[in-house]
Design a protein that fits this description.
604 residues; alpha+beta; 14 helices; 29 strands; 32% helix; 22% strand
């Protein structure tokens, strides 16, 4: 029985992550990295594709815990179960920041009465396709298949046996009694890593997260939501490189039963500026620096070879293929691994990269000597190529077009170069050249991407369709917020792409611009952009109402997927989605600044 996407919670160790359902089952886990093959893939198939459930003995499939929450300021999940006979217990799920190997730890603790608990572990390597050979060794279980090896133990030892290609444990607890399960992965050709003591690991894990969240400098409204989103962004960060995965999953559908199922376990350049802005504004300078350094390493090379996304360590090759043995979430096939959009031409990424590097420089991040030379090379390429059609921000798999957002971001690239040279004339570069380019792009967009009859910017040149990405026009400074064309665009997008108060990216009705069948839900990042645009255009109360609506979309532990179906009332798309949480943080910051300005005005 498929659980709703919002029934899942995230655990992770800053190198990979897993999803724990409200039924007590870990249904998705990739080891050892975010983009590694999953050893639990029930999320995209069924329990025979791998999962690990801890629940009351005899609990039927689908029965859910009574309540759950993250321990304050952490990514440690606490799920509480109550049984019909008055017993109760707690399961604490977490992944400690690793030393040598990734560990998944689940501590079960009796709270009241006498409860019997069962653990069912089904390991299936290679995205649920390979059943490992499991054997006993020194009172533990070790599962091996090809390159993967997993050790499984409990402290103290409990009754454990093999049944139906799974490892089962059952035990009885009274109040205060605890049993800790530890699952440890390592390459099968290497010696087993030293076991980690689970109770000490829990204390260290809680301390690590609380020390980190204590660094947050944001004290404005919506602080709880901001901190939870920042924790989520940190959890999606690959610590060795500073790269941030767009999501922890692949192929969660944008439409139930549809084919819009993509792999998001990689790093998108489109997220650069907004990610950096959220980190810098909330006091996380080290994370901002690490993200910028990842960005500079990833984009190094020929500007013509700039990609829209890279692997979490900066890998360039992300081949896409389908996994036929997985039926897909709720039957939404195909399941895809990798992402062919990596080979697309998206001219907007040049603007996003240059905007992010400009933001880092102007915010006081230490300058890299080679950074400006890279930016000049990118500008040289963009100057020669900005007039080309491309696949655009949304990675359409239809024909290339002259997308308005792509052109606006080409203007951003030239504008940030001009600003940088005006601020520091000692830098190499022809400021008049970039002023000329900036003026040419601006004229081109206003002449060809604006519909004067409807008073709105359109999705692409010659189109009558709209695109929520045009909501960013005032944010990036292309036009001032009080320009009638900006106000008209905000109103048109709200009217034509609105969905129960939220916003879709673009229309999927009629001949789809993206070349795909079916539709999708409201796009949460775009809905946050609408709230930002409402603030900028002088409608803060409407923005607050929309933001409150978006906060209500979060699940019970504060997480957001990529999209939302307002009719069915459920989340859609890969989960949790960094883009959505970045939008939440930045909109909260925008509203906080607005409230501060309003308070100062009242005081005067």
């Amino acid at each position: 029985m498929t659980q709703p996407i919002e029934d899942y919670a995230l655990i992770g160790d800053l190198m990979t992550s897993g999803l724990v359902g409200r039924d007590g089952s870990i249904d998705w886990l990739c080891l050892p990295r975010f983009d590694s093959a999953a050893c639990f893939a029930a999320l995209l198939g069924d329990e025979e594709n791998g999962h690990w459930r801890i629940a009351p003995a005899g609990a039927p499939e689908g029965e859910r815990c009574t309540r759950r929450a993250y321990a304050d300021g952490s990514l440690v999940l606490e799920s509480y179960w109550e049984t019909p006979d008055g017993g109760a217990f707690k399961v604490t799920d977490f992944m400690p920041q690793r030393d040598a190997a990734p560990d998944v730890m689940r501590i079960v603790e009796g709270i009241s009465g006498e409860v019997t608990v069962r653990s069912t572990l089904r390991l299936r390597f290679d995205y649920g396709n390979v059943v490992p050979w499991v054997r006993r060794r020194d009172g533990e279980r070790v599962a091996i298949a090809g390159p993967d090896s997993v050790w499984f133990r409990s402290e103290p030892h409990v009754h454990t046996w093999g049944e139906d290609n799974s490892t089962r444990s059952e035990f009885t607890l009274t109040p205060g009694q605890r049993v800790a399960f530890v699952l440890t992965w390592h390459p099968s050709h290497e010696p087993r890593p030293e076991p980690v003591e689970p109770y000490e690991a829990l204390e260290h894990c809680l301390a690590d997260w609380r020390d980190w969240t204590a660094q947050c400098t944001y004290q404005g409204p919506y602080r709880e939501a901001v901190i939870r989103s920042l924790i989520t962004l940190k959890a999606l960060t690959y610590a060795p490189t500073g790269g941030i995965a767009a999501a922890s999953t692949t192929s969660l559908p944008e439409e139930i039963g549809g084919v819009r199922n993509w792999d998001y376990r990689y790093c998108w350049l489109r997220d650069s500026t907004l990610t950096l802005a959220s980190m810098l504004a909330t006091g996380y300078l080290e994370e901002a620096r690490a993200w910028r350094e990842w960005l500079l390493r990833a984009i190094a090379g020929d500007p013509a070879d700039l990609q829209i996304m890279y692997g979490i360590a900066g890998e360039r090759r992300i081949p896409e293929f389908e996994v036929p043995w997985l039926r897909g979430y709720a039957g939404s096939a195909p399941v895809r691994i990798g992402n062919a959009a990596v080979n697309q031409l998206q001219l907007d990424v040049y603007g996003e990269v240059l905007d992010a590097l400009h933001l880092g420089r102007s915010s006081g991040l230490p300058a890299e000597k080679h950074s400006w030379r890279i930016q000049l090379a990118l500008l040289d390429f963009l100057e020669r190529n900005w007039q080309r059609p491309d696949e655009g921000l949304w990675e359409v798999r239809g024909p290339r077009r002259h997308f308005v957002h792509s052109k606006v971001m080409a203007w951003v690239a030239a504008d940030r170069a001009v600003r940088t040279l005006e601020r520091d004339p000692s830098l190499e570069g022809d400021v008049e050249r970039w002023r000329t380019m900036r003026k040419e792009v601006h004229r081109d967009v206003c002449e060809n991407g604006y519909d004067p009859r409807r008073n709105t910017f359109t999705q692409y040149y010659g189109s009558e369709e709209l695109d929520a990405a045009t909501l960013l026009i005032p944010r990036v400074g292309f036009l001032p917020p009080d320009d009638p064309r900006v106000i008209g665009t905000v109103d048109a997008v709200r009217a034509e792409l609105g969905s129960s108060g939220l916003v879709r990216r673009y229309s999927t009705e009629g001949p789809p611009v993206d070349g795909l069948p079916g539709g999708e839900g409201a796009f949460l990042a775009c809905s946050f952009w609408l709230a930002d645009a409402l603030v900028l255009t002088g409608r803060p109360e409407e923005a607050r109402a929309l933001f409150d609506r978006l906060l209500a979309v979060r699940n019970d532990v504060g997480l957001l997927a990529e999209e939302y179906d307002p009719v069915a009332g459920r989340q859609l798309g890969n989960f949790p989605q960094a883009f959505s949480h970045i939008g939440l943080v930045n909109t909260a910051l925008t509203l906080g600044l607005c409230e501060q300005i309003e308070a100062e005005a009242r005081a005067d």
